[in-house]
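Protocol step 4 of 6.
Sequence for Multidrug efflux MFS transporter (Candidatus Levilactobacillus faecigallinarum) entered exactly as in the expression construct, tag removed. Do not edit the line below.
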Amino acid sequence: MSRKIKLSLAVMVFGTFFGLLCSTLMNTALPTLMRVYHIDITQVQWVTNSYMLVNALMIPFSAYLIKRYPFRPLFLLAATIFLGGTVLGIFAPSYAALLLARIIQALGTGMMMPLVNVLAMTYAPRERQGELMGLIGLAFNFSPIIGPTLSGAILNHFSWRYLFILVVPFALLTVLLSWLFLPTITKRSAVHLNYTGLVTISFSLLLLLWGFSNISNFAQHPRLILGAVCLGILLCWAFVRTQTETDHPLISMGIFHYRAFNQATLLNVLIITTMYGNTILLPLLIQNIMHQSPLVSGMALLPGACLTGVLSPISGRLFDKFSMKKLVTIGLIIDCLGTVMQAFFDANGSVWMVTGGQTVRQLGLVLMLIPIQTQALAALPQHQIPDGVATFNTLRQVAAALGTAVITAVVTISDRFLERYTGSALIGIQVGFILCLVLLLICLVIVRRGHLGELE
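Step 5 output, structure tokens:
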């Protein structure tokens, strides 16, 4: 790999780090926003879900852009859009304006993410792909985890607007570095944008997310919510059908002919669902149940975040040396142990117990996420890597958004129907953790039985 490509990757990873950092930076502020705007958890979750949904929608569109335009102007455009959304967030006069700022930020991040992966997987030699993806994991896996910790420290001294103010210098630096150092790596080909596919999958994901995020209100609006979910599923089926029949698909369905890619993607979806669900559950537990400050809430995540940062490059090297099945199995067992610690936590327990459970979970996650991502992309031929990157990252963001929505709904429903019997406001959060545990156990069964093909 040439020095020019290494420098380009460094700049792009730097920018993507802050884009993904913002995906969870507002999580610790959710209880604060609920009080400021007098809204409930169903409404406030859109601060997070809107970001992840737009991220998911932009990624398949980016697959077209990557094939059609050079890397440099694409990344410059993405970094500038992200900067614009961040500045708007500083001056947002209302909750609606805050959501708009988050959406614009997500547009930029959704464009940056695939560019990093495609450049790395295209130019890295096969024997170093795991190591390189481990370094990229600092942006993709470490930044969302460190987000709540940083926001907790910021909110302890400043208002929530500083969650945007303090990002601006880094967003500006990303634009400047991109303009100065990114080479014009030509990546042009005669491709056509499949507008039908883009519109279909966009509305499908929007309807599914809206439907799942309102499950707690199903008794009041059963037909509306069920109709949204069913229509979302129908549009998703229509998207797959049209992409297999057209000569110019938005995403090539040929990537699903590779069993290793399918299994790695499925595992990633389930694991990411639990990871992002956890970033919602912990602030609610520590701030609303244990009545601790946002700073304490953020600091509880710090040891696990640091562990992720240190071990991400090592995890990539482990992929180059050991079997995929062994790494993921060990990681899942560790993750399950940490989740059990969280699920059966007592409201009178110490914050240190919560911190311990989260740190154990992060150790398991960091052993799994980089190898899973590397395995998925390494299974594809070079010409299908852009489609694989777009699909893998889209499903990652969809899992994050839908997982957050479903777990939030489970917490709300459990509180509504079980608190009267238990007398504990903790019950809903415990059920949320138990749902995460069930999903991890399903992953463990899939890995051990090899339902979708061997991982080695």
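Step 6, annotate. The two ends are 26 Å apart (CA to CA).
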